[in-house]
């Protein structure tokens, strides 16, 4: 039986760059999830224009409330007239696997339950986002419409029915809607076999190559076990923290040197394996580490772009490379050498969607541990790990050697991001207002031995649809190629997070082997001085450095 439940609009549901993220208890409060889901169905439609029910994909990263939320979403999909939902067994799907299923089955989109790399649990974060039929995150026009709808919603529809058994693979009925419970790994693993030379990687492992994959008690565990250990022959136990847990075992499932410190210690320890990697809560991010060498995400993108042709899926070469504006310019140098286009987009994976759909870019990356390609419309953590493995299997060199050769050939973009978390929002806003006001007078000014060449507030015009996104971050460009970029995070759930991104280019062959923080010190000092970070926020040192 379908119920129409009266509700009141719930304010504050503005979806961020990656859907709606809130404290789990907020999502669990009466009507909150239901209101947001109804707003989604009201905007995207659970039935097509011909009145026929649509097909959606549903899954999440397994965090606390994932299982309950899945049942609510299924009942509401049925009540709203959807014909079919494809759901991962146990309501699990990594974000890239969900993107793949949306595309593979030519569905009308999907609902992904995740707060990405944010911790999970009753007192931590939950999230939900809608992905479009192309497999990518909904564009701003859609998320804004969902937000507007949620502010006026007066009722939602839900069927009364017992829970669907999501532990059982196969077809079930829910109030006349088909629910297909599928193996969350199988189709994704098949796609990876298409793209990469599994034979070469198998031979690499068979030759004694050792790897550590830290799945951080999040969703990539089952994917990594199946692909790395079962299909590629990595030693059993290669994948650690491989069981997705509702609270991620208390871990902060964000693959960076701070949160994946156990992996870092192992990779820099006496018996380090040849290669290490970690992924995040929903499996779209990756960190890559060699024995005794950390690969920054910006460098990783550049190395992958320079070597992608070694993998069968990219043997024909790349059409173009896209990076988010704050990501280092290392990939641009590779694109220039390859004679292909380089795109600079605002932060957030959704800005790559049009470039990928239009065939302008093949590889994309962000400094925030996100790398991916046109195989799906999300960043993809395991994909990046497998491309690295494919390159290592063909080149038969260490990660350190590949990185050193890359720097020698292209020069090195020293790079770091400093995060200042949980700043009072009013203070952060005041700092940005002052910085923006100062921009017109900055060119030509000398600071900390650097000369400012240009300063602006980044605006992006999408080359495909012409849409313009303003205020995407303040850029200070120095005449020697160094850069400082300031942004406020769009994904935090507490106060404001200031992100300061700094970069400096060393053409080589000298000075390629410095400590990044030391190499960047003048740029960091200049950035603090220009933005008056301490005066506005009271902070002198960042909370997280990557
Ligand atoms: C952060 C990163 C962005 C990333 C976004 C979403 O955004 O800086 O590069 O696109 O998270 O990532 P995910 O899909 O893994 O949650 P922000 O706005 O906090 O800087």
Q: How is the secondary structure organized here?
A:
Layout: E1 2-6, E2 20-23, H1 24-28, H2 32-44, E3 55-60, H3 66-79, E4 84-92, H4 95-104, E5 110-113, E6 125-131, H5 140-150, E7 155-159, E8 170-174, E9 177-182, H6 186-195, H7 198-206, E10 211-214, H8 220-231, E11 239-240, H9 261-267, E12 275-279, E13 286-290, E14 293-295, H10 297-307, E15 320-324, H11 330-338, E16 341-345, H12 353-357, E17 363-366, E18 370-373, H13 381-395, H14 399-410, E19 412-423, H15 425-438, E20 446-447, E21 450-457, E22 460-461, E23 468-469, E24 474-478, E25 483-488, E26 496-506, H16 516-531, H17 533-537, E27 544-545
Parallel strand pairs: 3-4, 3-5, 4-9, 10-11, 10-12, 15-16, 15-17
Antiparallel strand pairs: 1-7, 2-6, 5-6, 8-9, 12-13, 13-14, 17-18, 19-26, 19-27, 20-21, 21-24, 22-23, 24-25, 25-26
Would you give an account of this structure?
The protein is an alpha/beta fold and 546 residues long. It has three domains: 2-183, Alpha-D-Glucose-1,6-Bisphosphate, subunit A, domain 3 (Alpha-D-Glucose-1,6-Bisphosphate, Chain A, domain 3); 188-410, Alpha-D-Glucose-1,6-Bisphosphate, Chain A, domain 3; 412-545, 2-Layer Sandwich (TATA-Binding Protein). Helix content is 33%, strand content 25%. It is built from 17 helices and 27 strands. The strands form six sheets. The chain has a seven-stranded mixed beta sheet with strand order 2-6-5-3-4-9-8, with helices on both faces. Strands 20-21-24-25-26-19-27 form a seven-stranded antiparallel beta sheet. The mean pLDDT is 95. The chain binds 1,6-di-O-phosphono-alpha-D-glucopyranose (G16). The site of 1,6-di-O-phosphono-alpha-D-glucopyranose has 17 residues, from loops.
């Amino acid at each position: 039986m379908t119920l129409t439940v009266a509700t009141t609009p719930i304010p504050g549901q503005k979806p961020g760059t990656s859907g709606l993220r809130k404290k789990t208890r907020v999502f669990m409060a009466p009507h909150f999830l239901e209101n947001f889901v109804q707003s989604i169905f009201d905007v995207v439609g659970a039935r097509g224009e011909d009145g026929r029910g649509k097909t959606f994909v549903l899954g999440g990263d397994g965090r606390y409330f994932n299982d309950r939320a899945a049942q609510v979403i299924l009942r509401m999909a049925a009540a709203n007239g959807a014909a079919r939902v494809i759901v991962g067994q146990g309501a699990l799907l990594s974000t890239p696997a969900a993107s793949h299923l949306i595309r593979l089955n030519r569905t009308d989109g999907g609902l992904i339950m995740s707060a990405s790399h944010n911790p999970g649990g009753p007192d931590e974060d939950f999230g939900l986002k809608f992905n479009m039929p192309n497999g990518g995150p909904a564009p701003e026009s859609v998320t804004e419409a969902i937000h507007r709808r949620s502010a006026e919603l007066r009722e939602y529809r839900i069927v009364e029915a017992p829970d669907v058994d999501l532990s059982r693979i196969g077809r079930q009925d829910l109030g006349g809607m088909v629910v297909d419970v599928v193996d969350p790994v199988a189709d994704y693993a098949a796609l990876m076999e298409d793209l990469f030379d599994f034979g070469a990687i198998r031979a690499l492992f068979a030759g004694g190559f050792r790897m550590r994959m830290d799945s951080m008690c999040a969703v990539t565990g089952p994917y990594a076990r199946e692909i790395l250990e079962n299909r590629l022959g990595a030693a059993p136990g290669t994948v650690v923290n491989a069981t997705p847990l509702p609270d991620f075992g208390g871990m902060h499932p964000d693959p960076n040197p701070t949160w994946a410190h156990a992996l870092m210690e192992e990779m820099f320890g006496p018996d380090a394996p040849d290669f290490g990697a970690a992924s995040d809560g929903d499996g779209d991010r990756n960190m890559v580490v060699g024995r005794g060498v950390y690969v920054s995400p910006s460098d990783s993108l550049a190395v992958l772009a320079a070597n992608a042709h070694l993998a069968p899926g990219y043997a024909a070469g790349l059409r173009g490379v896209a990076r988010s504006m704050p990501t280092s310019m290392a990939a641009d140098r590779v694109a220039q050498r390859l004679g292909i286009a380089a795109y600079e987009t605002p932060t957030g994976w959704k800005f790559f969607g049009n470039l990928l759909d239009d065939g302008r870019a093949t590889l994309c990356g962000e400094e925030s541990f996100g790398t991916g390609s046109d195989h799906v419309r999300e960043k993809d953590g395991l994909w990046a790990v497998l491309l690295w493995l494919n390159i290592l299997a063909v080149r038969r060199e260490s990660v350190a050697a590949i990185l050193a050769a890359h720097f020698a050939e292209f020069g090195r973009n020293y790079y770091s991001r400093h995060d200042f978390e949980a700043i009072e929002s009013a203070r952060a806003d005041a700092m940005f207002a002052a910085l923006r006001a100062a921009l017109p007078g900055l060119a030509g000014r000398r600071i900390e031995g650097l000369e400012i060449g240009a300063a602006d507030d980044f605006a992006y015009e999408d080359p495909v649809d012409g849409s313009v996104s303003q205020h995407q971050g303040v850029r200070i460009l120095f005449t020697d190629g160094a850069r400082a970029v300031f942004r406020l995070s769009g994904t935090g759930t507490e106060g404001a997070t200031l992100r300061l991104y700094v970069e400096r280019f060393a053409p080589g062959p000298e000075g390629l082997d410095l400590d990044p923080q030391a190499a960047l010190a003048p740029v960091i000092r200049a950035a603090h001085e220009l933005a008056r970070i301490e005066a506005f926020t009271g902070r002198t040192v960042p909370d997280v450095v990557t």
